Amino acid sequence: MKACEDTNRLKGATMTSDDLLARHRAVLPSWMPLYYDEPIELVSGSGRRVTDAQGRSYLDFFGGVLTNMVGYDIPEIREAVQRQLATGIVHSSTLYLIRQQVELAEKVARVSGIPDARVFFTNSGTEANEAALLVATNYRRSHQILAVRNSYHGRSYAAMGVTGNRSWSASALNPLQVAWLHSGERVRGLLARLGSDEQVDAAVEDLREVLATQTAGDVACLIAEPIQGVGGFVHAPDGLFAAWKKVLDESGILFISDEVQTGWGRTGEHFWGYQAHGVTPDLLTFAKGIGNGFALAGVVGRADVLESVPAISFSTFGGNPISTAAGNAVLDYLLDHDLQANAARVGAILADGLRSAVGGLDCVAEVRGKGLMLGVEFVRPGTIEPDPAMTVRVFEACRAGGLLAGKGGLYGNVLRMGPPLTLTEDEAREGLAILVDAIRSSAEVA
Fold first, then answer.
1. Contact by Cβ (8 Å): 149, 394
2. From 46, 63, 220, 222, which residue has the greatest number of CB atoms within 10 Å?
3. What is the Cα–Cα distance from 372 to 428, expressed in whole angstroms?
4. Bridge pairing between strands 49-52 and 57-60
């Protein structure tokens, strides 16, 4: 009886953000971070704007960590989900035919660039990478993996094992034998001072040495992000993946392109991040934007590779009727409105504007990224020493100015921006003005 009374009391209460924060801290683990000194609850959204519980509106430049790819409250997506809901079938499991799943798999296979492709749907990028690693290790009969420093591939056991960022490595245990390659870091590190061509040559030499000294030769795969998301939008020179794959092909080692954050035209110049390198991966993982907030992810790869799993396997919720209804609507909208071209056009406004306005400040080490996947790295003036405190000041100043952004990087000193791909030119200029003001005012405080 007391439990019912408590429930009714909570239902009838008007909760403030402070109440919600206290409740959050009372029942959720402390290792789940909340943004901002005063965390906010988002209660509504439209287009590229969201509103918090206090009625404050924000221009969203982070999109639920690059997930709300086409924005908020998009009629075409809402209506597609409502049509599926109206059938009464929210879930059936993949033990039955799912029309929405088959249709989306056909589309994903077609746009993947991988010949004779097969698609397996999951719920998240972590699961997609786990599935890709499962496939690759079965295909090659090896648990040896090549991964890249500063990478992030997920929070589960194997995905965490190939994550090269200590802040996100919650366990020292690992079911895989991993050898690490240098990233495309251009601010610090052994390859940072090299030109693009020299960096590619040095990275290839590094790969050959790692294969010769840290492996038994029968490596399963290399997994890499075209642009490292959590790593602060660091990316290697174009062409590196092709140079790596030439070496991998000598031994039949598979290449997995983790496109969880770079896929679907976000980089502007290409539909997939791997295409900047002139190479086709054996497996490609995707997630985030394709569901536009609905849980949807997966792996697509060559049939002979993806069919190598020797036992029954499926994902209970992966590719369910609701999420794939959303995914079909998202992909159709993306292609019909050529959002890749918009990402290139509007992203250039932001990148060029940032480089012009703040790129010369001695606290800014680099403005980097492609399309609508941009980062600003902050350092202590006159050095390359990371300055996470500066990043926090800019981050909070952006929020105060009405702009939501993200944080990241190996040292927590990178401001990350991944707005919806529907961002308009006027909104880009509005956000740019807030960013420039936040960076300049924060630099003066320092």
1. no
2. 63
3. 10
4. antiparallel
3-state helix, strand, coil in the chain (%, to 5): 40, 15, 40
Nearest-CA neighbor of 408 among 151, 147, 144?
Answer: 151
**Domain architecture of the chain: domains with CATH:** 22-73+339-445 (3.90.1150.10), 76-337 (3.40.640.10)
* Residue 222, Cβ density class (10 Å: 0-12 exposed, 13-18 middle, ≥19 buried): buried
What residues does 386 pair with on adjacent strands? Answer: 379
Q: Round to whole Å and give the CA distance between 419 and 434.
A: 14
Query: For 80-96, what is the HEC assignment?
Result: HHHHHHHCCCCCCCCCC
**3-state DSSP call for residue 152?**
coil
Number of neighbours of residue 81 by Cβ within 10 angstroms: 17
Q: How many CB atoms lie within 10 A of CB 424?
A: 12
Which pair of tokens denotes residue 379? 């350092």
Q: Are 36 and 407 in contact (CB under 8 A)?
A: no
Q: What are phi and psi of 34, to 5 degrees?
A: -120, 140
Q: What are the Cα distances from residue 186, in Å, to 6, 368, 373, 389? A: 56, 10, 17, 21
Q: Collect contacts of 32-38 with beta carbons under 8 A, ≥24 apart.
A: 35/395, 35/407, 36/395, 36/396, 36/399, 37/396
* pLDDT tens-digit map of 49-88: 999 999 999 999 999 999 999 999 999 999 999 999 999 9
Give the CA distances from residue 434 to residues 21, 58, 357, 375, 441, in Å, rounded to whole numbers and listed in that order. Answer: 27, 11, 12, 15, 11
Q: What is the largest CA-CA distance in the chain?
A: 72
226-272 pLDDT, tens per residue?
A: 999 999 999 999 999 999 999 999 999 999 999 999 999 999 999 99
Q: In what order do the strands lie in the sheet with 283-286?
A: 117-122, 297-302, 283-286, 254-258, 221-224, 144-148, 177-181
Q: Are 226 and 267 in contact (CB under 8 A)?
A: yes
According to DSSP, the β-strands at 254-258 and 283-286 are parallel
Cα distance between residue 367 and residue 201, in whole Å: 24
Q: Give just the sign of the alpha carbon dihedral 113, 115, 121, 125.
A: negative
Tokens of 180: 């690490």
